[in-house]
Design a protein that fits this description.
This protein is an alpha/beta fold. Among the domains are: 100 residues; 158 residues, Trna Endonuclease, Chain: A, domain 1. 73% of the residues lie in helices and 6% in strands. It has a five-stranded mixed beta sheet with strand order 1-2-3-4-5.
Length: 385
């Protein structure tokens, strides 16, 4: 609004300047009087319009100030609302962020622990690889795994390790089962080199050579077990070859069926850790059945002894019943004698009463004995109790 005032003042000053200029030229031209009057009238009209415009400008300024104040108030209210919403949103966001950071910290701890476990596992795998690279250590690894599996299922009395047979051959494990079939020998074998060569073959020639080496290694193990650990009259007519690797076992049964048939003919059953556990569970059931048969024999013997005791008890009961019968007869005889004595006492009493009623002195009268209708009193000393 100040700019409009400045413009009006400049316009008025321009008109006044023009009026002064026209007055200055009045002496030079009389025809310009009318123009000066018209300019004066225009100046007056312009001054009036300026005053009117100033009033309107003042009203507009006041209206604009009110609208500006209302706009500022509305703007402040909206800014306060936006600030409050932004504050709440920031607070919620901070809370969620803190929660997320806490969960992230937990997950990072879990990841760190998993990383440590993976590092430990990697070290163990490297150690296992070192063990498997050494033939002697690999054999010991298979024997330890075999021992762990057997001892976890069978009782100590049913198994022995590193047992020397009559042919001076030492077997890794001997499972003692009653005849038939008798003790079963278990030997751990681990043909790792030929298996690795088979898995790492790059062309058909290497693959066939590795297959021949793998087949020859398994065949040699089967023959050795058949010759060394199947002893007639001492062990069962079959034995077990334990492969400590499920992968080697799967490769053998998947791609070498003729080698598996060779093991069947030699009565050497090839087992993996999984199938060995199933076999050991079957052996445990057989041992349990054998123990139950032994216990059944013991129970049968005890039952026979119990029957003998029952027979003796029956005989003694019969004897006691005979004694009870004889005692009952003796009691009947005693009751009969008691009745006789009582009846005789009553007869004597009747005779005495009759004498007193007659008033006479009793004479010596022989009392006639009544006829004996019952047997005499039995001497109880002759009867057994």
């Amino acid at each position: 609004m100040d700019i409009l005032h400045v413009v009006l003042i400049i316009a008025v000053l321009a008109l006044l300047g023009g009026f002064v200029l026209l007055r200055h030229r009045k002496g030079n031209s009389t025809g310009d009087d009318e123009r000066l009057d018209a300019l004066a009238a225009a100046t007056a009209s312009l001054a009036t319009a300026q005053v009117d415009l100033g009033g309107r400008l003042s009203q507009m300024a006041e209206q604009t100030a009110l609208e500006r104040a209302e706009l500022m108030r509305t703007l402040h209210e909206r800014l306060d609302g936006v600030s409050k919403r932004m504050g709440d949103s920031l607070e919620q966001s901070a809370t969620r962020t803190a929660t997320s950071l806490g969960e992230l910290g937990k997950h990072l701890n879990v990841i760190d622990q998993a990383q440590k476990n993976i590092s430990d596992l990697a070290g163990q795998v490297i150690g296992l690889q070192d063990i498997l690279d050494n033939k002697q250590a690999r054999g010991a690894f298979g024997e330890v795994q075999l021992q762990d599996l057997v001892t976890s299922i069978l009782p100590p009395s049913a198994v022995s390790f590193q047992t020397t047979l009559s042919n001076q051959r030492r077997v890794d494990c001997l499972i003692r089962i009653p005849h038939p079939p008798g003790p079963i020998a278990v030997d751990a074998k681990f043909p790792l080199e030929s298996y690795h060569a088979l898995r790492q073959a790059e062309d058909e020639g290497q693959r066939k050579a590795a297959q021949r080496a793998f087949r020859a290694a398994i065949g040699k193990h089967i023959k050795d077990i058949q010759e060394r650990y199947i002893v007639a009259g001492e062990t069962a007519d079959s034995a077990l070859m334990f492969l400590p690797s499920e992968a080697v076992y799967a490769e053998l049964h998947a791609n070498f069926p003729e080698t598996v048939e060779q093991s069947y003919r030699a009565r050497v059953w090839i087992v993996s850790p999984t199938t060995l556990m199933a076999t050991l569970n079957t052996v445990r059931a057989v041992l349990k059945d054998a123990r139950m048969r032994e216990q059944a024999g013991v129970i049968q013997g005890e039952v026979m002894k119990l029957m003998d005791d029952v027979h003796r008890l029956d005989e003694r009961t019969q004897k006691l019943q005979v004694h009870f019968g004889q005692a009952e007869k003796d009691l009947e005889l005693i009751a009969t004698s008691t009745k006789k004595i009582t009846r005789r006492a009553e007869q004597i009493e009747e005779v005495q009463l009759a004498d007193r009623e007659d008033g006479e002195e009793p004479e010596d009268v022989a009392i006639e004995e009544p006829k004996n209708t019952a047997p005499n009193i039995v001497d109880l000393s002759d009867h057994k109790s």
